[in-house]
Amino acid sequence: MPSHPRAHRRVRTVGVARRFIVEADGGSRGNPGVAGFGALVRDADTGAVLLERAEPLGLASNNVAEYAGLLAGLEGALRLDPAPDIEVRMDSKLVVEQMSGRWKIKHEDMRRLAGQCQDVVRRILAGGGRVRYTWIPREKNKAADALSNHAMDGKTIDREPGKSQPPATAAAVPASTAAVRVSSSGPGASGHPRR
Length: 195
Prior knowledge:
By secondary structure, the protein is α/β, with parallel strands linked by helices. The protein has helices at 62-80, 93-99, 108-126, 142-152, 175-182, and strands at 19-30, 33-43, 49-60, 85-90, 130-135, 155-159, 169-170. Helices cover 33% and strands 28% of the residues. Helix 1 (62-80) packs parallel to helix 3 (108-126). Residues 16-153 form the RNase H type-1 domain.
């Protein structure tokens, strides 16, 4: 007896993108000054922290540090999933408005970092993911702010909670090396002083 024509038809399950919240912050002690960034990726459904990054930048403006934090957060989300649905939350109105396309990016260092962020966003979009930006008040960005302060204190953090990881280490990043990577010659005010 012949089998039913649909008996061997494959069922295709369409994957649902993982939903992430990227919280990012950057700061400098002086503007420009000793700078660092912090970024974390949360599961949007549970609030669990999936990834944390913090890194000293040497001498840079607070806005350059904010962009470096955004880049680290986007790259971290992409590392966890090739096509995530991301809501970026930052207390930098400047970065949120510039990345949303509503404000121009005038400073060269910020244009370069914004371009790197846009490259990561294009990869996320090409994979079927989504990225949107939300400004939040500084008091709602405490976790990323704490990470950026650790970075300004010279600590590097790159961990995925839940995985066995070494503790955070103090970074030996010469200011001249970091300055080449994310140097800033402009004032880069973002509307609020950084610690």
